[in-house]
């Protein structure tokens, strides 16, 4: 076993052992649970380099796209996310949101030119976003140790498997043409990164410790968006 393999094995073992915070652990009092902070900081640094060299420049190019094109692409990628929303809202027992996401998918795909036009929004059918990470935490009751994933960035030991599940649920994954699939993925990354350009500039200026700032902000946001009452009675599904 090489040194790199041993390093990865030790990191994985540390996550398994310390994946869940102690019972008396409090985010408000103790901050994010980050037992492998040195490893996470190193990965964060590598991601920062990749972002500076590749992703951020792509996002800046995307800012020059005509507004109508950007709007259409945003609608298209939001529509691609509806199957994941439907699956997760079902698992979270959010019956009304399941109906809403299904209606949005049907109307926007059929009448909105494959999702380029948000027809559902004009009908006051608003999108409710969620993901597999939120679903996993709703069932486990714990977000687990903070984890920085190469390229994907801030996550947790509970959220990380959700990334794989999101790929499986995404229609983009099943496009056979590699050029089309990779082009769509690249466009979506640039689109999402563009929305964070101003936030990133504020972090660069305001944060004394950028890593800690991003980690704590992410953890605080996730705690505010995790669904509750997943283990409720079946008759409470339609709420």
UniProtKB/TrEMBL annotation:
Keywords: Lipoprotein, Signal. Pfam families: MlaA (PF04333). The keyword Protease does not apply. InterPro entries: MlaA. The keyword Ligase does not apply. Residues 1-23 form the signal peptide. Belongs to the MlaA family. This is VacJ family lipoprotein. It comes from Candidatus Doriopsillibacter californiensis.
């Amino acid at each position: 076993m090489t040194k790199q393999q041993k390093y990865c094995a030790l990191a994985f073992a540390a996550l398994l052992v310390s994946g869940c915070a102690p019972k008396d652990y409090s985010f408000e009092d103790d901050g994010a649970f980050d037992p492998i902070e040195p490893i996470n900081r190193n990965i964060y640094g590598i991601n920062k380099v990749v972002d500076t060299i590749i992703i951020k420049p792509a996002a800046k190019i995307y800012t020059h796209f005509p507004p109508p094109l950007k709007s259409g692409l945003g609608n298209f990628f939001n529509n691609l996310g509806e199957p994941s929303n439907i699956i997760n809202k079902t698992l979270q027992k959010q019956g009304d949101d399941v109906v809403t996401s299904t209606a949005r998918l049907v109307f926007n795909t059929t009448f909105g030119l494959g999702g380029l036009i948000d027809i559902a929004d004009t009908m006051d059918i608003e999108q409710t976003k969620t993901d597999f990470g939120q679903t996993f935490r709703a069932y486990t009751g714990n977000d687990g140790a903070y984890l920085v994933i190469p390229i994907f960035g801030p996550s947790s030991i509970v959220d990380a498997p959700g990334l794989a599940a999101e790929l499986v649920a995404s229609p983009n994954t099943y496009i056979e043409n590699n050029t089309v699939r990779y082009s769509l993925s690249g466009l979506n990354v640039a689109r999402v990164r563009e929305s964070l350009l101003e936030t990133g500039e504020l972090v660069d200026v305001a944060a004394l410790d950028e890593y800690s700032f991003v980690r704590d902000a992410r953890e605080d946001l996730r705690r505010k968006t995790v669904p509750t009452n997943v283990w409720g009675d079946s008759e409470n599904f339609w709420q």
